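sorry for the late reply, my laptop died twice this morning and i had to redo everyting from scratch. anyway the thing you sent over, i finally got around to it. pasting the sequence first so we're on the same page, its 1122 residues, then the predicted structure underneath. double check i copied it right bc i was rushing
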Amino acid sequence: REAPPSSRAASRRGSRRAGAWGVGGGRGRLGPGGGRLMAADAKAQVLVHIHGLHKDFANTQAHSDWLQHFQQATQAWGVVHELLSEANDEVVHYFAAHTLVTKLQAGHLPSSGSISQELLRYLANFWRGPAAVRRQLVVALIDSALWQAPEQDGHWLAECIKQLSERVEAIPCLLEFLAAIPEEAANRKVVVVAQRRTVFATNMLQHSGHVFEALCKASVTNDQCNVGALHAFARWLHLQHADPALRAMKKATAKATTGIRFSADVVAKGGLHEHPLVQQAAQTIGAIAKAPLELCRACGDVLSEAQGLTNEATPQARAVLLLVVQAVVEGSRQLLPMTRANLETWMDQDGELAARAAVLGRLVGELGAIFCRLTVADHAQAAAATANGQPPPSNGAASEAALNALSEAALHFCALRHTDLAKCGLDFWYAVLAQHLVATTEEDDPFDEEVQIGGKIGTDGWGQSRDQEAEQQRRAEEVPILAPHMKRMVQAHWQAVRYPAEPEREAYFDWDEFVRFRELCSINITEACLVVTPRWIIDHIGTLLEQICSTQPIAWQDIDACVFVLTGVASRAPAGQDTVIPKLIELLPSLPYHTEGFKALLFRNAASRLILFTSGYLALNPEPCKQILRFLTVQHLPAIPALPPGPDKDAKKYCEAIACDAMKMVMTAARKGIVTADNGTLWRDVISAVITLVADPRYNVDCRAQLVFGIGQVLSVLENWDELEQMLSIFVARMEEPLGPIFAALPAEPLGSRAQKTTSDGKAPLELKLYIAAVSSVYNMPPRSEALPRPDHHPVLAVVEKHFATIERVCIHHTQYDELMEQVCLAFSYILGFSRAYAASSPVFVPMMKLMARCCEYHPQPFYMGLVRSVIGFFAAAGSAQLDSILVDLTGLFVAPVARSFSMGCPLSPPINTASYEMLAEALRHWNLALLAIRNASWLPETLDATIDALPRLCEDNQVVHERTICAMMRFLRNVLLWADPSTCKGDTSPELLELQRQAQAIIVERPLARGVALPRLVEALARLLAAAAPNGPAKGEVVPGVAEVLRTLLMGPFEYQASGGLPAALRALPSPLGGVLAEPEQQRLVQQLKMEKADSRRFTRTVLGVAEQFAVTLKRAQFGA
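ok and here's the structure:
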């Protein structure tokens, strides 16, 4: 859209531009005069496109685009006037009214006429509706006022109220108008400056009394107007937050120990609680069981906004807050008894009872902070009176009774079998905790000059600025006051997280929604530890468990709830210092697990969850650990595949995942204890049992992979490497068995690059993935004790060697499956990295690398180069001439085809190119590999020649696509230049390093390459790179900084003279107009400046960046001139 004009003059300039739109020229006018200047068929075209938008579905987008374009035209004012003044379809009237809103929000004002009066005349035609059209005209009327002078605001409001109050049929329009003013005052779609928005809201607030009076009068018109008046009244109460004094009060108290403290002016003056509409709202909520539902919702809005105007406990604020609390308490006494059956039976989500409870629940959820503040304040007042020998305040008992009743209502909501209603109770207790911890959230202020991002959390935003000692003291004083209530909260939350005994029989039970609800409960319970301590919660659950287990049959859902609560607070309690969790762990194997129904899955999942969260405890206690391992491998995990799937398709998958994760975590945490338990015999039984589970195809492949990881963790800590090798070989052989049918279907010879994916999902068969996972399962082995004899081989490498034929067959026939081959590369990387002391001498090392090179030839992917890069990092410093030769040959095997592809004009994909040159740069980072490659490798001169030639062409072709490749190429070139610089060796005069210097210098300035000597071509390529990077924003990306680093390396080493002389010529050789950007004296000054700044990397880079930016400016000027 056009930028909104900042004045009417700008609007008139916009009208002249709009003549090109095709509806005629002339000045736009709100009224009949403007219509005469429109093209004769403009209105007809608009009508065609409006009806086409709603009927011609094949061209909906075209009609929409045309109408949006029309809305931006100045001449639209005349057409809109005609459409609103004539009888038309509702869609036509709506579009016309919406056009007014669009133009006024963007600041496109008519050139003459009183827009407010004209809009009021339009409104007169729509007092009785349609409501959608009337709403748009009301919004347009308010948006127009935002563009008028601030001193006109008061008169405009009074005049609008007067005109809309004169006739009874206009009252709905008046109420919609008053309700929309607070919305539009904060609406950033109206592009006025924030200061004008603030002034408008402040001016509106000055007339709050007049508005409240008008709303009171309108509310008695009829029931519909009563609801509308209450709705508008709630909006005006919310507008009070725009008061500059209130906003300043919030900011001034933001760093206080007790958090933000504020009271709106209408509260501080007193009397708000006596306002007729507030009284009506309180009375209606108190009779919520019988009052009309829409009226209840509107009254709920009023009370919600009223209590939100203060968070203090002053007498004026207390009067308002207690009115709201008492109304909610009275409504709860009437309505909540109707929901007692729904403390066990799930409630209809959309029934009328749920709708009424939602109105009440919303208020309950918002009153948590008020409950905390008033409860603490009442105790403080009573304590102060007692200390002074005075009787407690007379209103204390009534206040305490109301607050206790509110607490009971919140507890009831928590336990309701309706997740949305129960969340209201959770919100209440979360707000209590947030108020106690001063972790409340301050909402964004729409009237701030600067737009704020996100809410500002008290503890994060300004917790560091508070007096920490005072904060701790305040919390300590509040804990005894709040602890009884928080204990009741924990008890209610335990009841709330209970599953139904027979989930399938509950028509309104939604498992997925209930799982999310339980996590919210867990947050509250966990944070309650700060008030009632984790030990109390754990002991309370222990008491419940004794009661549950003493009753037969045991209620599985109660056990599950106990497990859920315990796992929520376990992280807050010291491990092993209670008796409840150990007893429950001891009880797990003997619990009566079901085999049918959804409860079978849910109860098994509870057991898995407990084990998962107590794996640390099990690692420290061998006997319970052995008991649980036996339970997992013999009873628990084997039983899960046979369980019914449940009503939710993901429920069983989730249950499997938690169970396998629990098995993995116990094996990981207790691995050292497992290999020593029972005189070193337990681990064999555990591993054998888990291997059987991994081989079970009924489990999801991801779950089986988790078990593979657990096996590897246990095997990795075996000190006897012979046993490790034996068991790992058994494991790999067992995972090879399912590969038989796959291998039987393979062709005699690999198809190579002709191989296609044959699976339905395009992924490799899961048996292949599990086999590779088994091969690489043992990798993070701890350092071997020096007291143990050093073996002559590594057990994992021995297993790889033994099964290499199978590994080779898996790889060479399935290179088309990228995710499988990436897994293989990661597996080899892990194996070689953790066995590096033995890998170089292993007979399988070279075949592994050759295998990966062959696979890469069939289907090139960057992860192959990533593997070689890792291998270079592992073994470059080994000091073996034979290994150095292998690594150099391996590097050439991968990078030479990539460089050759540039020479042939058919480069590979950018990720492959990038990975290849990153691998090459890593290889040349090591002096021994660099010397061998530069001196002996036939592929390096060819690669260097192709790289210098391709470097600027890639940037000229598409810098964004090739940027990473370009930067990797420059790192390779810079490494060669660094080895040619004597300062790189830092005084080391060893013959090898001196030989490396001579070889590096020779390949840059002496050795002839296919396209000529490297150095002058490199200087020319750097200049072309600067030119190519200029149009793309030189400061963006890493190309220009990379050029600066290579150029700086040239000027710091033995090539300074040649580079200094060649750079001006390279700059002059750039294509027009860049070749003439720098005159010859400027070129010489640039060279001298670069030579002076070469010791300072940052200054050098800024100078080079300045040249590129100068190129960018020249190109823009040339483009503009063209």
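Confidence is low (pLDDT under 50) at residues 1-39, 450-465.
thats about all i looked at so far, will dig more tmrw
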